[in-house]
Amino acid sequence: MTFTDKQLVNKIIDHSPLGVCILNVESGLIEIYNKKFSQLYIAAAEAHSEQQILKVLNREFEADKMVISKVVREKNSFNGKELSLISNRNSKKDELVISPLYAPINMNNDTVTHVAVWMNESTEENTVTSGPELTLSQSEPIANLLSEIPSGTAILSGENFVFELVNPTYQNLVSGRELTGKPFLEALPEFLGSELEKSIRRVYTEGVSLNFTDDLVPLLNTDTGEPEDRYFNYRLIPRTNHEGSVDGVLLFTSEVTHEIDNKVNLERTSNNLNLIINMLPASVVIIRYDNLIVEMINDANLSYWKKTRDEVVGKPFLEILPDLADQPFAGQLRRVMQTGEIIDVKESPVLFTEPDGTIRETFVDYTYQPLTGLDGKRDGVLVMSFEITDRVLAQRQLEQYADQLSIANDQLSVLLNQLSKSESRFKYVFEKAPVAIGLLRGKEFIVESANRKILEVWGKTDAIVGSRLADALPEIQDQPFLGFLDDVYSTGKPFYANGISAMLKHDGELKEIFFNVVYQPISDTDGNIADILVVATDVTEQVNARKAVESSAKYFKMLADLVPVKISNALPSGEVTFFNRTWLEFAGMNFEDLRDFGYHEMMHPDEIQNFRKGLAEAASECRPHVSELRFKNTEGKYIWHLNIASPVLDEDGNITMWVGSTTDIQSLKEEEQRKNDFISMVSHELKTPLTSINVYLQMLLRKAENTEDQFLKKAYIQSLKQVRNMTDMINGFLNVSRLESGKLHIDKAEFDLSELVEEIKTDYKFQYSSHTVIFSANHSVTVDADRLKLIQVLNNLVGNAVKYSATGTTITISFAQYGHRLRVSVKDEGMGIKTENLNKLFERFYRVEQESIIGGFGIGLYLSAEIIEAHDGKIWVESEFGKGSTFYFEVPLS
């Protein structure tokens, strides 16, 4: 085979990101191939000579002769039938679905003498679309070869890196731009100074080849004029002239943006689901379909089964725990899926066979609840269980001692019975097994045995027993399964595959089915491979469900972004992992910028220290932290927010992440401030005329005391009492305003409690003459408190007792010492308080609804509670409706 520039052609083929081979049309044999192509068919190609590799490839690769004839006849490119392959690249087996692209190569004038076959992985993103016509300066075979590559390919020429050749796939990556004939930086100016530009120059100057995977490239969108973050795999190869000097750069590239996004979304969804079930205190496992595939399991259940996640997820229940086959669980699971009933069992025994052959007997309480799939049909079971082995064994220990001999005899009888039935049971289990099982005999793979399940999967009847597998299932001739069986038979190594696709004929139509499959070789007495056991599980519904979950991930993210509250997630270290759209719009940044800018940078400086201290305390106690904070918006203005940081705990009580909810309360704050300003203004304005009225009334009372008119004196006394009540009410409003603005001042000093008692005794005698006020103790006790504020609290409590009790009843005021605290109680014989109102009495402006005929604004008890709290004390009430109330408060002693 002769090319105009064989050196360049070989370099293009060798460094292509796809597997490629070139066929001779006349002989139909492969003449040239690259390493990636050989890896699709040969596990260790390096260990063979080129002649041996070509021999294997020409035997294993079956070219589509009909497509080749069409390519030669119409001198155009065409896709062949999809191939399912197990490749051996990267030293591991990968499942691949390949769409071969057959492209013509014109060698002699206008005659197609060779055909290039590009092995393109069949994904939506890699589909080759038609591109513009290209002007090529290289020889026509090379130009044809490059233009048909199903990945982005370009040749950059000279030290200015002029686009000498651009194939359609590369042009589609930057649609809307003219590339051919332009220098690289003129056509793509956004790459000036980028790592890609530097890499191209290095390849040109040093003659080295460079590879890049999942590389972030900010390409300009010609429609919006904005840069877009896109990810590419690309390879840079030096092109040499006939003198051996580098005169250009070959550039191969493919976009992987969609794969990167899918990978991130899938990992996030999986992590969140695992996090949720691992937070549950019970052992949890989700089992799907009639073959009982384990879809999800938490750590508690893995510990109980003594298995790892890789040993369990995606595998049948009875394959994971075959020793449970004789126990009722599999049948119960299927019954739940069939009937929808919930099965709840207590103290159920579960027997496990340990690796050393011993039996581990456990007991569990378990519940089976039906689950529905995306189509609304029951297809799974949620299993929640609690191991209660220790409790059951303790309860049954005495019974076991008494019945030990009887149990031993019973077990012996069972074992003998099982031994006699083992052969028939094996046949029964083989036939009734919930998984597909078949036995293939010899190198011809004669169907020796096939249970009902595998016949259903194959879409056949038991008439195929005794036939060659290739004859029984002719549709698999162009699929890889016979090749897999050949490898198992020749190497003696089992073959495993999960979610592998197969096209099988059911009722005359091909149907795509996904399997978890095992090909297990079975040796004869001489150690030679005699049979192959085929065990397959239909996971079509599971695969389709997984695809549906992946496709819905974006939908759930959109819902989170629609929430008007600012939502964020952070790791225990403080690293923020998520801001919803409301946060990003408030900050005017994208996620990366806001994350790097720092959550604390948006807080008001006066609140950062208290926030960090409060969050640290909440973290140490594993509880939510609630605070009011100011955050700076895009205009530089600080806005008040209610911030709730809630910890998410694992089963050991450790914090795994923080969920933040931040709500704008700026309007509430402004309204609160306007209300406080109004209260303060009105209170001050009302106190001025009351002061004057109080002075005049005192002067009139002094004059009335020099007369014999008792009515006049009582009238002045009552008027002064009302003025004092009005003043106390105004002071209450002022104190409420001060409390809310943080300006209420507590002036502590040590004083003797007995002196305070003597002072209020006299006041209460005249002020509350309608009731009997009793002081139960007046001994000397020194307290460290604000004297006037304590008198205000007592006045509020005694005033309420008088207000809510009948005339002539008794009010008892007691003082007692409890450790280092003074307890004061005020007991009345009034109407009492209903139980549902007790917890609300100390709230601001709260009044008992059924007694609204009694005057008041509901601030006295609220103010009293705030004063006591400011003394590091506490206040509470005990009451029975219709039988009176007792109010208590405690403050520290000196």
UniProtKB/TrEMBL annotation:
It catalyses: ATP + protein L-histidine = ADP + protein N-phospho-L-histidine. Signal peptide: none annotated. Keywords: ATP-binding, Coiled coil, Kinase, Membrane, Nucleotide-binding, Phosphoprotein, Transferase, Transmembrane, Transmembrane helix, Two-component regulatory system. It is found in: Membrane. It is a multi-pass membrane protein. The keyword Protein transport does not apply. InterPro entries: BphY/WalK/GraS-like, HATPase_C_sf, HATPase_dom, His_kinase_dom, HisK_dim/P_dom, HisK_dim/P_sf, PAC, PAS. Its EC number is 2.7.13.3. Residues 346-400, 497-551, 625-677 form the PAC domain. It comes from the Bacteria. It holds the Pfam family PAS_3. The keyword Metal-binding does not apply. Residues 391-418 form a coiled coil. Residues 681-894 form the Histidine kinase domain. This is histidine kinase. It comes from Chryseobacterium caseinilyticum.
